[in-house]
Amino acid sequence: MSKIYKTTDENFTFKSYYEKPGFQLFHANCLNVLAEIEENSIDMIFADPPYFLSSGTFTCQNGRMVSVKKGDWDLSNGLRKNFNFHLEWIKACKRVLKPHGTIWISGTYHSIYQCGFALQLAGFRIFNYDLMKNKDWSEDQMKKKGMQMRSVWSINTPKGIEKKFGKHPTQKSFDLLKRIVLASTNKGDVILDPFTGSSTTGLAAYLYGRNFIGIDTEKQYLDLSIKRLEELGKNIKDKLNKEQL
User: What CATH code would you report for 2-51+78-132+158-244?
Assistant: First the structure.
């Protein structure tokens, strides 16, 4: 993947936090790493940016009181600063994405409208929006009058095994990223996740023969990503060995 970077490895500002063929992780602000990437070099971007919902208060989840603080990275800086944050990283992604590339952005209704406006300001063409339906939702919740449904994906939340080494507070299911990766890319393409978290995007990319670049400011989630990838690699190797017997 060296061809996508502006400089040689010796002059590259950010050394990989972890690297193996076709898979790189960076411990950095995504804007800094994106600035080192050549224009029009990325085939697909999946981004799950902060929702800025953490407040230090509590909410009820599955009958339990839980803290509404995912981490300092999710603390709101006010509506205008939150929007400027989204606009800045989206513009940086626009520069590196190929003209016919695809960007997917995940968010809650608190953040997705800001991202949608930022996408338009950055010059993106919004092709579609999709709603991921938790299979625990009732059918009545999906049939509200007056609501225009473009696309509803019925996909489970992350399975327990996906959190074997720990969990990310906004972790997406492997099934979701598998669908996105296969829908938008071909083998050998380059996929980037600027807020990689526990790197479910990277696992799907790696399993299906795509190259992956993941960036995150939180070391604990990069370490979690590495454990997940190494287990996936071991499982693939074990499967190949069994098939050769």
Answer: 3.40.50.150
